[in-house]
């Protein structure tokens, strides 16, 4: 089975990795899993190795990569403690896998079933709504060869709308009590829901939004700052994940 997982093109650092191995690039999706691994390191001493690839060269579309993730997108997590090694695609599935296997005390998840479900709701919300919308803003306003105002406006407006959803949750608009984090009782608890969402939302300026656009979201802006102060978050988006450093 491991024979089918790897080809002669698979980088040796991927093929010979022991334990957890992350194939990533320092983009918002990559950063979500990078941050969780850095948090797990602080909480439990979790160890892993990393292969950085450059998606601009389409390395992620090569067969060696597709064997690990048929979707051809970073990040991919491979658990080499399983026999055969177990590849996990999709950021949120990777984060849930890490919670199950490496977060024994539910430090970044929840023991209570309802709080755990709340964490899934906000993780899935960003996975299914925020990330694809903001990704399309970046694509249509920066990468697309042709500037299509309808597409740019459509995805800008949808992204601002989902920022508004985060604002409702964090401001406590309908509960009367502001929260510090997206999921959990009371003020909430820092969890994978925040880690999944934050790398995208913190990049609002890079996505072309202005201070004026962000004015309706003061609680979101405070949350961006709050999460960004964590050492593991800073390491998870930092130089260790920049290729050719
Ligand atoms: N739904 C996927 C999205 C992953 C994704 O879009 N990754 C981007 C980088 S942020 C990528 O690999 N793009 C390269 C490509 O589309 O070929 C996830 O959450 O893991």
Automatic annotation (TrEMBL):
Residues 17-106 form the GST N-terminal domain. Pfam families: GST_N (PF02798). SUPFAM superfamilies: GST C-terminal domain-like (SSF47616), Thioredoxin-like (SSF52833). Residues 112-245 form the GST C-terminal domain. Belongs to the GST superfamily. This is Glutathione S-transferase.
